[in-house]
């Protein structure tokens, strides 16, 4: 049989398989030998597979086959697309003959679903944290579709909320996720990250989430190829909540002036506020209103009341608080309108005459003094009627009142004012019902004054003072006939001023009437007696003048105790030198002063002044040369030192213990002494001339100065002269005096001076005064003007003049000023000046001590010329000279041989330059230094000689003067300082634990006991601004701050530190000199430093100088 292979066909869908047999329609074929596709041929074995373009064909030797269309080309076929694929084959028969033919497959495409997946680098969701802002997130998905002709669209098909949803539903969040692109995605095989998703929320969409709460939104994304093929993928967005600050909204309220605004919780400031998490809110006040008072509660309710009389805008701010966070500060606007202000009614009073109808018109009615802030018209509304009469009150405030018959006294009614909206307070109308007017009674008056003066009477002492009115009406004085011998100004209140014509003495008068507003009194007379003024008489007592020859004078000389000097031509006063009995006292008396003879002072005379003039015939530099004590015992010119039993003692027995007057520095020529006090004392010591002359024993004149004072005696060239001015007569003017005053400053404190007359004046005495600045000044310490006028009323003998003190806030020393009486119209001024002393009330300045510099005084700049370079071995006294700006340092070791050298005083200039000086001509042992601010001299104490010297700091090697301290009882004269206010010296005595206060020439003023801790006190500084001492002992590193009473205020222990142990000897600081002076640092301005001289070990060159800053309270004065 002939072999014949015939063509085969088969049809199938994409992704399906078809089976058949190639040889079934052939003839003579026995087996399949070859299979071919394109250029590929394969010999058929038991099973042979060959791949086409769209599928894979498997053939068998018996001709059976299986074909599957699942290759990529087939998968890429669109639905319904038809393609063919042809294979060739060769079959053979049993004889080996062959025949070839084809196998054709028709393949129809079907639709393939797209695929959506999360590939590498894609994002399946986001974890977000809620804020008050927009939340965003983005990512990609991978979408593929093997159907290459397809395009894919994407949609969000579902949003599932889990966790804290806050009431949100799918519709609220589904649109928050968008896809890109939503359509036209090619989605070819191998594409990736080609579908983007974006999540975007509103700014406050998830504010409801509380701290840590989580909302998860599961989004389902679906892709479709448009041919029924689709796929889905889930995206999860997790949102974690945080606490959101609450949001406060501005509020506005209207308030009415004078009415409290009450706002409830429902209308309060929190009513419009919200919190995203729904937390309870609290109102927190930030700033209150400017024009009213506010009470804001936690729940937002509040009360507000505008300030009285205020209208206009006001506001306050607050923040809402949710327990964790605050809102922004929010303003609450308050608009205050006037509204209606209730009227104000004032009480009224009327005087009513009994038995008459009392009628008051509207203009003077009860509403006349009432007011309404809104200007509304007022009506009077009666509240309670009168108890003792009848009343008709009209709404305009006018009324008619009639008291019941026989009633006198006070009746009343009450009413309120009504402004049409509100009523006022209740006002009372008092009705004083009195009997018909009584005529006033005027009484005659009598006044007196001195000729040449003006009589001024106040209302209290005027013509109406003794007049009366039964109805107690206010009286007025009405002049009828004026005076004929002078001018008069009569005032309605009865006060007046009368001035007699020049030269007139005698009686003048004027007449007047008293008027009570209704009736006049009868005429009354005011008699004015003008007294003649006695002329002051001055008498002069001086041997050889007008026959006077009763001056007694002599010298008591301790060195010549039995010698009488009554006939000497000079009288001497001197203090004993140290260790020498050579004191001199003077006795002086003007005998037979009082009597009725020519040139004598009459008994009963008033002494107005007394001046003693002495002719000084030697010049003295002393600041206090003579103290005049009134003698109390009889003496003669033959008296000697011994006959007066060791001189005269000012002890209150032989002579007064307190001097009447002290003379200051004298110069050659006349020396004038005011002895008014002495003459007044003698002139009032009795009632007869004999008694007055017996009281006059003259004066003891002594001194505390070693600079002798000598003046001419009654036997000398110029005799002592006493000039006395006096008044005599019963019509003499009173004598005016003034006393000193003292007061501690403080709020409202007054310092009061007592002014007194020796007898009552017959007229008012106007006194003109002025304040003279001292250490206290009008500008700094007193309130009010520096001048003024006060009046002692007629009949009075005294007046207290009070001046108000300023209460400053800084610590200062006791201060003083002078009050001077300039004139007194109608009186003689005896003592015209008094001293006012002001004590401080402020706390002491604070000490904040710190050492700022330490200077080694053994180095080259301080080495002695002849002491082998020992330097200042034992520094003692320190003194700062404000003129040269040098700090002087005394070296007290140089008296000890063999260490003595000529150089025992050094200075450090402002540039640091040093200079040495020798004081050996008058002192080997300078233990203390001090600058006298009054003359610029430097005073030097010497504890060996017990003496104080003074020198010029510009040339300190020359002694200018001295006084001894041994006569004061000192035995260890150490450091000294000056008080610039008084000129006094403060000097330490270490052994006796005393501080001596001395006058400038060494006279004792007082002693101050030092505290027991101050063993051997040797160093002293003084701050006059605060009145504070600094005291140190050579036995302790401590420095004590001490007050004027000798009490310790504080202890400065900064030098007690081991850091300041002496590096040469290993001992602690031993202060022997102190000084307050400007800081060495020019940048410190007015800062004051305390300089300390460290003595170290005796006879060892180990001296040091410390500078201590005391703190900001301590500035240069």
What features would you describe in this structure?
- This protein is mainly β and 1117 residues long.
- The protein folds into 8 domains: 8-108, Sandwich (Immunoglobulin-like), CATH 2.60.40.10; 115-240, CFA/I fimbrial subunit E, pilin domain (Immunoglobulin-like); 251-337, Immunoglobulin-like, CATH 2.60.40; 348-434, Immunoglobulin-like; 445-531, Immunoglobulin-like (Sandwich); 537-727, no CATH class; 735-839, Immunoglobulin-like (Sandwich), CATH 2.60.40.2030; 855-1109, TolB, C-terminal domain (Neuraminidase), CATH 2.120.10.30.
- Helices cover 2% and strands 44% of the residues.
- The chain has 5 helices and 78 strands.
- The strands form 20 sheets. Strands 1-9-8-3-4 form a 5-stranded mixed β-sheet, with no helix packed on it.
- A hairpin with a 6-residue loop joins strand 64 (926-931) and strand 65 (938-942).
- The protein starts with 7 loop residues before the first strand and ends in an 8-residue tail after the last strand.
- State the share of residues found in helices, binned by percent: under 10%
Q: Give the number of helices.
A: 5
CATH architecture of the largest domain: 6 Propeller
Specify the overall morphology: elongated
